[in-house]
């Protein structure tokens, strides 16, 4: 059963816990089943990728990882 979340895509939020505490960003995506959000520019991880049609060289890409909704706070403005 999905829970109704008070944070929507496009909202401005501040991270209140974790290594990115204090950073602000815009919500890029909401994952209601796992109660998580993806905030642009926050919790960025490097991911190794193999060479493919899209990425000829392979190597590393930076990817934004989900954060639990209880760890973010909506910011006015």
List keywords for this structure.
SH3 type barrels, 5-stranded antiparallel β-sheet, mainly beta, about 80 residues, elongated, two-stranded antiparallel sheet
How many domain regions?
1
Strand order of the largest sheet: 6-3-2-1-7
Low-confidence stretches: none
Secondary-structure element order, N to C: EEEEEEE
The largest pleated sheet is described as:
5 strands, antiparallel
CATH architecture: Roll
End-to-end separation: 32 Å
Helix content: under 10%
**Average residue-wise pLDDT:** 92
Instruction: State the shape.
Output: elongated
Q: Radius of gyration, rounded? A: 15 Å
Count of strand segments: 7
Task: Describe the model.
- There is one protein chain.
- It is built from no helices and seven strands.
- The protein is mostly beta strands and 77 residues long.
- The protein has a single domain, classed as SH3 type barrels.
- The strands form two sheets. Strands 6-3-2-1-7 form a five-stranded antiparallel β-sheet, with no helix packed on it. A two-stranded antiparallel sheet has the order 4-5.
- The protein is elongated.
List the helices and strands and how they pair.
Elements: E1 12-15, E2 24-31, E3 36-39, E4 44-49, E5 59-64, E6 67-68, E7 72-74
Antiparallel strand pairs: 1-2, 1-7, 2-3, 3-6, 4-5
